[in-house]
Amino acid sequence: MKEKKMNIWLDDQWDDPERPKRWPPKGFIPVKNLAEVEALMERDPRKIGVMDFDHDLADFDEDGRERTGLTIIEWLYENQIDRYPEEIEVHSDNSVGRDNIRGFDTNVRKYVLSQI
């Protein structure tokens, strides 16, 4: 029997009625920031099928450092490698952030996941 996986949509504006292109596609669980990703990973034991990233999340830690989509994919690598997304997409309008997320993912797949 095929294991059911979750699909995650990361975007701080996923519920903004003025920004429908930010709404999650059907079948995706929406999250806005690192705290919501951590909570989802804690309550839902499924592996991640597809995770679709935004980069700029208007999320800051207690020291004022910005947490971005790159921060979250790094967190997944460091804390949830056994559940690391099978596939990533990036819907961010930030081209540098988009490239950074994709580059990080490429390196994880090439140098880490291929060795497991």
Q: How would you describe this structure to a colleague?
A:
With about 120 residues, this protein is of the alpha/beta class. It has a single domain, classed as 3-Layer(aba) Sandwich (Rossmann fold), CATH 3.40.50. It has three helices and six strands. The strands form two sheets. A four-stranded parallel β-sheet has the order 2-1-3-6. Strands 4-5 form a two-stranded antiparallel ribbon. Strand 4 and strand 5 form a beta hairpin. Helix 2 packs parallel to helix 3. The longest helix is centred in the C-terminal third of the chain and has 17 residues. The two termini are about 25 Å apart. The model has no long low-confidence stretch (mean pLDDT about 95).
Mean pLDDT: 95
Instruction: Classify the helix fraction into a percent range.
Output: 25-40%
Question: Given the structure, what is the number of helices?
Answer: 3
What is the CATH topology?
Rossmann fold
- What is the number of strand segments? 6
Q: Termini, distance in Å? A: 23 Å
Estimated share of beta-strand residues: 15-25%
Low-confidence stretches: none
CATH architecture classification name: 3-Layer(aba) Sandwich
The gyration radius over C-alpha positions equals 14 Å
Can you summarize the main beta sheet?
4 strands, parallel
**Mind telling me the CATH class?**
Alpha Beta
Tally of distinct domains: 1
Query: What is the SS-derived class?
Result: alpha/beta
What is the 3D shape? globular
Structural key phrases:
116 residues, Rossmann fold, 4-stranded parallel β-sheet, alpha/beta, 20% strand, two-stranded antiparallel sheet, 3 helices
